[in-house]
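dude i think i finally got it to work??
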Amino acid sequence: MTRCFKRNMVALALSWAMVTGMFMVSAGMCAEVPRTEAPPVIVLPVKKEEPVKKDDHNAAYDKMELLTETLLHVKKNYVDEKTYEQIINGALHGMLQALDSHSDFLELEAFKDIQEETRGKYGGIGIHVGMKDGLLTVISPIEDTPAYKAGMQSGDRIVEIDGEKTMTMKLDGAVKKMRGQKGTPVTLTIRRPDEDELKKITIVRDDIEVPSVKGATIIGEGVGYVRITQFALPTASSLEESLKKLKEQGMNALILDLRNNPGGLLSSAIDVSQKFLQKGKLIVTTKGRDGVAPKEEKIAKVDGPYPDLSMAVLVNGGSASASEIVAGALQDNKRAVIIGDTTFGKGSVQSVVPLRSGNGKAAIRLTTARYFTPSGRMINEKGIDPDIPVYLSHKEWRDIQMKRVRTENPGQFTSQEKDEYKDVVDKQLQRAFDLLQAMKVLQAKNK
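look at this
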């Protein structure tokens, strides 16, 4: 290989890297749940790149020469013939995934999937997954989907997908294998935390399209109950409609259920939080790298319509991302008592940036910041601890879900199927109800 050819290859690769690099730097931030089957993702526009500093240029040039030399050796000597595109794409995947489990290079198909997911409908089994302790882990099944009905639970480790081990599988690759056309089956081998034996579950894929606000009802003594299953564009307005109806029915306290809610849009989490906060209250802070992504504070812009409503918020290990933002905001602003189990701990911000060099057919997903609660607590890998811990076993939680789906969809089940779970008690919900009743008594005495 001549020195001239070598330098030309490096220069070409470097110019390409500088362009994409500047897009990453100049891009804003957006919220995303861990790589899931249906993350609501904002795709950022391509922006004009900024000038590269000379020292950065020289340092990058030196390392690109090493990369180019390796690329040429692979192309010439690897046992199986590979194209330059295959080698470069593999290098990009490795580079970004070495940063963290949420960053990755998105080739055409994966990029199109992201854009489709943003529109809110896709074919799959209805499950949110992420990497935890290096293992493919279920964050939560989406309600009323095939995975939910098959009994998948938060915390399940997916060991195999259709017989292929997930240990060395990329996160995006695992998601791709689970997604597919409606009516087609996929078999998952899972390891449940409280069980020794592996379990195989075959699930038939379907179109996944689920409302984000469910179960609005008065559960007794003026205590309202609303469940948010994910944070999408219409969530805040749907919640407002439900709260107005409950208010008309005499609601004087509220239980907001965020259990197994894997998150979603940051803007939706802010809009929901604002409903219960006074103007000027801090909701969440995002902090990126110094000098690159400035600190941003999200503040309640208006007085919420329910600033004094007594509240309890239910959370568990399946509550992640936007759910943790809402729980943290209401907890730190002393607006609600948090009840349940420690949340998942997904508090990083990903930006999805289309690459100019890919002619709009490729993008990167890059972690650009982390979330912090109003008091300054970092959410990522720590989660939100409840004010009142109430722990449920995996079996208890599954039984609660089975009873709930039968209660909310009575026409889909026989009398025998309904009776099977009629005696199941939701300890977390019961504790929240008792707490709100006690608060009413205290408030009455203090008048």
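The chain has twelve helices and 19 strands.
im so relieved honestly
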